[in-house]
Amino acid sequence: MASLLPAPCQKELSVALYRHLLGLQESEGSLDQPAAGKDLNLLCCDIDPVLVERAQQCSPFPASISFANLDIMDSSAREPFLSSYLGRFGRSTFDIGFCMSVTMWIHLNHGDNGLMEFLSFLSSLCKYLLIEPQPWKCYRAAARRLRKLGRNDFDHFRSLAINGDMAERITQILTKDCAMELVCCFGSTSWDRSLLLFKSNGSSYEGRESSEQEQ
Fold first, then answer.
1. E strand or H helix that includes residue 65
2. Is-contact 185 195, C-beta < 8 A?
């Protein structure tokens, strides 16, 4: 099983997710890893090289959890890197992608088109996709913080046409434009953010999956 986390590179979140998927206790490390762990690999990407290096240095599962400094919006960098990573396992797609607390930053820094490109890319690369969209109030709070620091507003903030109920808007994009279906809404986190699970039902993912099986 190959998983992609294009999210803020929090080592604690990545390790907790890995332990949860394998049923490991907090005190258990790589030496306690069951045989099933050999088939579970996580790739965690972040744009901040300092966070990536810090996570790499203290990961208890270095053989199974990889941390990479990657701008997921840079197609010239992401495509060869991800293809190379998946190729190590004879794969061209991930079983599941986790997108935690990142959609707002993609949206603010790359605009409506950037958000749609990001979601389209993930949907083509992952069979399942778990997303935690930041609500619109978080956008406003981020813009206020910049103004208090005396800095210019986000380039795209005032021109975003995709706004309001972000969980609903992202669901519409993924189901109408990206050939995914909403499988489950797991309610809200303690930060009042929805957790949405989607599954690919499009020809793009199925075509990649079929080519893998033929190899």
1. strand 65-69
2. yes
